[in-house]
């Protein structure tokens, strides 16, 4: 009788072990690609929407990503569906990492969460004056408290810029404006505290997207961009054809540096009627420095953002003046 009980106990343990093995990453295999869940829209003022997976494996650690940024905390697999809790507007993906070295797997799909009443504009642009070969340098300011230079903006923000949405038929008609947007070192442009530009839901139809800065040439999209959807994406940096240029011009619409297209630097006078980089801009930069004294700080005349107005800035202005760079859109 005791032998029968022992055999029955061993059978139960074996069955339970089998169930546990089914919920773990199978022998030698990387984590299974479960589906990411949670897409939807939430109303302003709420706490967002839950993001999760429709399944998980014991022995696997799951990391939630918002764009390219890992979120915390991570979640360990349970053998069933898991949740990362409520998340705010953004695009979320999940990566599973085996705790026993069996590999890493991107989970299937993504969760796209939006906030009702707002649209998301994802925009990327590089400025020639701040370009460093792989991204952009941060603008400097002079800090009287430390009698030295410091970053003009915190985090990865290099400068602030404005975006205008121009009418398709009459370019001079500005339908919407977005000021004090943060330009990051990787070229992304965002509303403060967001990972995108907030656009009111009332913005519909198509528009030219125009970039305006303190000292770079006004630049607009090559063709109208539709704002009818909830998510809009435009990248000025990956092709010359992304920016408009006068058909009669002898120059490219942007300058190619290290394989990326950058907005021309040197328009310090920022003329509204006829934006251009000419001798007036060059002489204005020249007048703000000399061999003996240097004008410094966060100023539009400092074209490369290092805190000084010097010969390097004059060289940048001179190069584009020699190219007769201008912006004209009827």
The Rg value, from CA coordinates, equals 27 Å
Under CATH, the topology of the largest domain can be stated as: Immunoglobulin-like
- Content of β-strand: 35-45%
What count of helical segments does DSSP give? Answer: 3
* Unreliable residue runs: 3-26
Total strands: the figure is 26
Note the overall shape.
Answer: elongated
Secondary-structure-based class equals: mainly beta
CATH class of the largest domain: Mainly Beta
Number of domains: 2
Which sequence of SSEs, written as H and E, runs from N to C? HEEEEEEEEEEEEEEEEEEEEEEEEHEEH
CATH architecture group name of the largest domain: Sandwich
End-to-end separation: 98 Å
**Level of helix content?**
10-25%
**Mean pLDDT score:** 87
Main pleated sheet: 9 strands, mixed
Descriptive notes:
This protein has 330 residues and is mainly beta. It has two domains: 86 residues, Immunoglobulin-like; 205 residues, Immunoglobulin-like. The chain is 13% helix and 35% strand. The chain contains three helices and 26 strands. Strand 13 and strand 14 form a beta hairpin. Helix 2 packs antiparallel against helix 3. The longest helix is centred in the N-terminal third of the chain and has 21 residues.
């Amino acid at each position: 009788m005791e032998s029968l009980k022992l055999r029955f106990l061993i059978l139960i343990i074996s069955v339970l072990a089998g169930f546990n093995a089914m919920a773990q990453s199978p022998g030698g295999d990387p984590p299974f690609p479960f589906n990411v869940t949670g897409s939807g829209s939430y109303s302003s003022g709420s706490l967002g929407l839950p993001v999760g997976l429709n399944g998980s494996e014991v022995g696997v650690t799951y990391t939630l990503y918002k764009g390219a940024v890992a979120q915390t905390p991570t979640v360990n697999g349970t053998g069933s569906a898991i949740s990362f809790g409520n998340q705010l507007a953004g695009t979320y993906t999940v990566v599973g990492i085996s705790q026993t070295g069996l590999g890493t797997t991107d989970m299937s799909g993504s969760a796209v969460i939006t906030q009702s009443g707002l649209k998301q504009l994802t925009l990327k642009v590089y400025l020639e004056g701040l370009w460093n070969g792989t991204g952009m340098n941060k603008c400097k300011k002079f800090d009287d408290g430390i009698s030295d230079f410091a970053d003009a903006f915190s985090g990865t923000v290099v400068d602030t810029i404005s975006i205008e949405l121009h009418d398709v038929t009459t370019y001079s008609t500005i339908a919407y404006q977005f000021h004090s947007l943060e330009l990051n070192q990787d070229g992304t442009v965002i509303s403060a505290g967001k990972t995108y530009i907030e656009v009111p839901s009332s913005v519909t139809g198509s528009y030219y997207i125009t970039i305006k800065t303190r000292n770079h040439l006004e630049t607009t999209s090559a063709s109208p961009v539709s704002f009818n959807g909830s998510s809009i994406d435009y990248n000025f940096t990956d092709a010359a054809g992304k920016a408009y240029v006068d058909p009669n011009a002898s120059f490219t619409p942007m300058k190619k540096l290290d394989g990326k297209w950058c907005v021309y630097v040197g328009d310090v006078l920022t003329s509204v009627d006829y934006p251009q980089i000419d001798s007036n801009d060059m002489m204005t930069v020249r007048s703000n420095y000399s061999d003996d004294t240097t004008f410094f700080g966060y100023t539009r005349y400092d074209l490369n953002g290092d805190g000084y107005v010097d010969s390097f800035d004059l060289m940048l202005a001179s190069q584009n003046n020699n190219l007769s760079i201008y912006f004209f859109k009827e």
